[in-house]
Design brief:
The protein is α+β, with helices and mostly antiparallel strands. Helices cover about 25% and strands about 20% of the residues. The radius of gyration is 16 Å and the shape is elongated.
């Protein structure tokens, strides 16, 4: 059952990233896309909160620009277990299938005995 939930979550995130963003006609035109070719880059264990579990990895594609779309991977585990490394095989597959997308693979604080998952699991 756990594997099925992870697959559904991954499919949902993938669909959301493919169809959720459109260009707004009021986009700030003072920000321009760079014509400079950029190499692919990965940044690991970037903190986004005060807890040591609040880190993410980001995988940036080559030739990215301001219009580069992002896919966010969130591991399963029912808020009580798991790690972003559990999603590495999905990250690899996603990079192969969508090489022009940036990928974020995120960890979050886990619930434990006496520690509620909400709102802590962020």
């Amino acid at each position: 059952m756990k594997k099925i939930s992870v697959h559904y979550l991954l499919a949902l995130l993938l669909l959301c990233s493919l169809f959720s963003c459109t260009e707004d006609s009021n986009t700030n035109t003072s920000i321009q896309n760079s014509d400079t070719s950029l190499e692919a880059k990965q940044l690991l264990n970037i903190a986004y909160g005060n807890d040591s579990s609040q880190v993410y990895d980001i995988y940036l594609p080559e030739n990215r620009n301001l219009n580069t779309k992002v896919i966010i991977l969130i591991h399963g585990g029912g808020w009580t277990s798991g790690d972003k490394t559990d999603m590495n095989s999905y990250k690899d597959i996603t990079q192969e299938e969508f090489p022009e997308y940036a990928i974020v693979n995120i960890n979050y604080r886990l619930a434990s005995q006496g520690v509620s998952s909400f709102p802590n699991a962020t």
